[in-house]
TrEMBL record:
The chain crosses the membrane at residues 32-54. Residues 76-98 have a biased composition (Low complexity). Residues 60-110 are annotated as: Disordered. This is Serine/arginine repetitive matrix protein 2. It comes from the Bacteria.
Length: 267
């Protein structure tokens, strides 16, 4: 007979050779099917074990991606330890320290007066005060010689210059009065300031030792917007530089009541 599937002639004998299982008896066919099922089951289990083992294998290590560009001079695995000066780390030892607090000139001390203001004066001076008609008490610091002194008080006039001009009218009546100048001056705080500098043979009715006296009457607008006076007294015969230095230091360190002021920097 002609086999159309294989496109050839074949007899019954040859047909049995191509498909021998078809001609086996039923028991033998069942045995062959069982063997085939066992082989397939073993193959399936083997494949499952291999697949699960491959799935659970750890993925190869990949280093974490860095955020942003790498810093120059630092490679992967480099670690900058604090304080060793390497890398870009910051050491606590390299933290800048605050500069030393400013101090007044030698021989001076900074005082916090009971009236609330701060001032710098020579060490060892005594203090007196009396009530004022306006603002803080009139405070007077006096040196051991009894002549050098500094007065501090608050002004009731509308401006430092107006106050200086008004005071100069009274001071001009002192015995031996000689005006040096009455003028506007520059104040460290940037506010308005005026100064009356003069010499006289008496101080508010007080005469004698130290005469003639050298006086600088300095009136200014402070950091709190209020107006104050610093009046410095000394001897004329020993020169005027010491009174000027006394005034400059007192003004530089002066801070009005209830006000935060930075300490002046050394010039």
């Amino acid at each position: 007979m002609f086999d159309t599937e294989r496109q050839e002639w074949a007899g019954s004998r040859r047909e049995r050779l191509f498909d021998a299982d078809r001609y086996l008896d039923l028991p033998r066919q069942r045995k062959v099917l069982q063997h085939t099922a066992v082989v397939l089951a073993v193959c399936g289990v083997s494949f499952s074990v291999w697949a699960l083992g491959w799935k659970d294998e750890p993925e190869p290590y990949r280093p974490p991606a860095q955020e942003g560009p790498a810093e120059p001079g630092v490679t992967a695995g480099d670690t900058a330890s604090p304080g060793d000066g390497s890398g870009t780390g910051t050491s606590d030892d390299a933290t800048p320290t605050d500069p030393a607090s400013p101090t007044p000139p030698a021989g001076y001390e900074v005082l916090d007066d009971s009236q609330g203001f701060r001032i710098a004066l020579p060490s060892g001076w005594t203090r007196e005060s009396q009530a004022s008609q306006y603002g803080i008490d009139v405070v007077e610091y006096r040196g051991p010689d009894g002549v050098r002194r500094v007065q501090v008080f608050q002004l009731m006039e509308s401006s430092p210059h107006a106050s200086v001009v008004e005071a100069q009218k009274a001071q001009s009546k002192l015995d031996g009065y000689r005006k040096i100048h009455v003028q506007y001056v520059a104040d460290p705080s940037g506010g308005e300031a005026a100064e009356h500098e003069y010499t006289a043979d008496e101080l508010n009715g007080e005469s004698g030792a130290g005469a003639p006296f050298h006086v600088i009457d300095y009136r200014f607008e402070a950091q709190d917007g209020q107006r104050y006076a610093l009046i410095v007294y000394g001897e004329e015969d020993d020169g005027r530089e010491d009174e000027r230095a006394l005034l400059d230091t007192a003004r530089a360190w002066f801070c009005p009541p209830s006000t935060q002021c930075e300490a002046p920097q050394a010039s």
